[in-house]
């Protein structure tokens, strides 16, 4: 069950959308809401506006809201871990001043290393999520947590479980001139394995609470997720993000990073544990969201 949300604002229109979504979630779950202003962003009087905004939200929505003040990237990470809280950003996200006058997106900076769930809000929030899409990898770590998170964020919704089957081995078999029969048998085995994987992961949810759909794609995961999100009109995509050193993330990229500027709905990026850690360790670093009973 989520107990706290940390909203990062620069008082832009995108941040206003994030406020709307954070309020909806906080009211649904009885969660506390914390507001922080990113250092170096927004209007000159942002620090003075923040406590007034927190007081207004608390009064209007009858929520526990507090202002944490102006924080830099490191301060945001520390605050989110201490609360603990789901981080909520609007898109385009606030930018961090960098060397040489360059500015970098806070959302991208928070991806690696990531120890907190990150919700990126792309548009106005007028109602609860109705069609979340949970994108599971080939052998996802914390798949159960991702599904529990989707159920908590959208407790009354139909949840679509999606998995993109990796076709690189098929391409190698084709290049090696494998027989049509052998290639077909391999594809069927992959599909069976993927369906079993989706059904095993979904066993953590109570079927009376959420209806589930199962969908398979073939090819690049990020591209297939984009296609399926548009086809199914999903209003929330949930995807995992491995905890890796920042330099490795920038070098190799990730599905979450590919989706961030391109997906057509809100994006919930769920932290997977570092190599050698277990799922519970990752949950300890972030909120172990549970569907409301």
SSE map:
Elements: E1 4-9, H1 13-29, E2 32-38, H2 46-61, E3 65-71, H3 73-82, E4 86-90, E5 95-97, E6 103-105, H4 106-111, E7 118-121, E8 132-136, H5 143-153, E9 159-165, H6 168-175, H7 180-202, E10 212-218, H8 221-232, E11 236-242, H9 246-252, H10 255-259, E12 266-272, H11 279-285
Parallel strand pairs: 1-2, 1-4, 2-3, 4-7, 8-9, 8-11, 9-10, 11-12
Antiparallel strand pairs: 5-6, 7-12
Question: How would you explain this protein's 3D organization?
Answer:
By secondary structure, the chain is α/β, with parallel strands linked by helices. The protein folds into two domains: 1-119, HUPs (Rossmann fold); 127-293, HUPs (Rossmann fold), CATH 3.40.50.620. 42% of the residues lie in helices and 23% in strands. The strands form two sheets. It has a ten-stranded mixed sheet, sandwiched between helices.
CATH topology of the largest domain: Rossmann fold
Helix content: 40-55%
Separate helix tally = 11
- At the fourth level of CATH, the homologous superfamily of the largest domain is HUPs
Concise description?
The chain is α/β, with parallel strands linked by helices and 293 residues long.
Task: Provide tags for this entry.
single chain; 293 residues; Rossmann fold; 2 domains; ten-stranded mixed β-sheet; 23% strand; globular
């Amino acid at each position: 069950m989520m107990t706290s949300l940390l909203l990062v604002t620069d008082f832009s229109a995108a941040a206003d959308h994030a406020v709307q979504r954070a309020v909806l979630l906080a009211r649904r779950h009885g969660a506390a809401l914390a507001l922080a202003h990113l250092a170096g962003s927004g209007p000159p009087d942002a620090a003075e506006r923040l406590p007034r905004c927190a007081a207004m939200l608390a009064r209007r929505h009858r929520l526990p809201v507090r202002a944490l003040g102006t924080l830099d990237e490191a301060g945001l990470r520390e605050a989110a871990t201490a609360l603990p809280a789901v981080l909520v950003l609007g898109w385009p996200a606030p930018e961090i001043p960098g060397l040489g006058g360059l500015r970098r997106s806070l959302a991208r900076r928070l991806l690696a290393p990531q120890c907190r769930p990150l919700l990126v809000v792309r548009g106005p929030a007028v109602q609860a999520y109705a069609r979340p899409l949970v994108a599971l990898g080939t052998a996802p770590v914390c798949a159960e947590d991702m599904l529990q998170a989707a159920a908590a964020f959208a407790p009354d919704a139909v949840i679509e479980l999606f998995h993109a089957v990796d076709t690189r081995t098929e391409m190698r078999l084709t290049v090696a001139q494998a027989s049509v029969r052998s290639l077909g048998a391999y594809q069927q085995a992959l599909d069976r394995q993927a369906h079993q994987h989706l059904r095993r992961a979904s066993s953590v949810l109570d079927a009376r609470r959420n209806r589930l759909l199962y969908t398979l794609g073939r090819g690049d995961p990020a591209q297939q997720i984009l296609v399926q999100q548009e086809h199914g009109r999903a209003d929330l995509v949930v995807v995992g993000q491995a905890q890796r050193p920042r330099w490795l993330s920038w070098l190799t990229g990730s599905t979450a990073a590919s989706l961030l500027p391109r997906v057509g709905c809100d994006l919930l990026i769920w932290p997977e544990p570092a190599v050698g850690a277990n799922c519970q360790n990752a949950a300890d670093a972030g909120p172990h969201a549970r569907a409301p009973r």
